[in-house]
Amino acid sequence: MMRVSPALRWDYGAVWAFLRGAALPFCGLYRAGYTSLGVRSTSVPNPALALAGGGFKPAWELGDGGQERAGRGARGKAAAGAARGEGAAAAEAPASS
């Protein structure tokens, strides 16, 4: 017996179209601009979704699915800080454990 998952070929936009179209529940962090969730200390809202006046658009508004993981790791943390207008010192500060 073989198990097949049609979602394997879905792109970022197709996943969000399905979730929202079917009114399925999802984690509230996606409404706050997170596009990929990982380690708490290095996951931040996606800088590509930053709004000029502060805050972030929801995850499903990300136009380039290739940027899905832009909010992960040290680079994501620094980029999100810069998108919020925080200085370089804040972006370079080590993550607390």
From the structure above, extract its key features.
97 residues; mainly alpha; globular; disordered C terminus
Describe the structure concisely for a colleague.
With 97 residues, this protein is an all-alpha fold. It is built from three helices and no strands.
Question: Could you explain how this protein is built, in words?
Answer:
There is one protein chain. By secondary structure, this protein is mostly helical. The protein has a domain at 28-91. The chain is built from three helices and no strands. It is globular and about 55 Å long. The protein starts with 11 loop residues before the first helix and ends in a 5-residue tail after the last helix.
What is the element layout, followed by pairings?
Blueprint: H1 12-21, H2 73-83, H3 88-92
DSSP helix fraction: 25-40%
What is the residue-mean pLDDT, rounded to a whole number? 81
Cα Rg = 15 Å
The helix-and-strand class reads mainly alpha
- Unreliable stretches, pLDDT < 50, 5 or more residues? 88-97
What letter string, H or E per element, gives the SSE order? HHH
How does the overall form come out from the CA principal axes? globular
The counted number of beta strands is: 0
Main beta-sheet strand count, sense and barrel state: none
- Give the end-to-end Cα distance, rounded to a whole number of Å: 45 Å
The number of helical segments is 3
* Fraction of residues in β-strands: under 5%
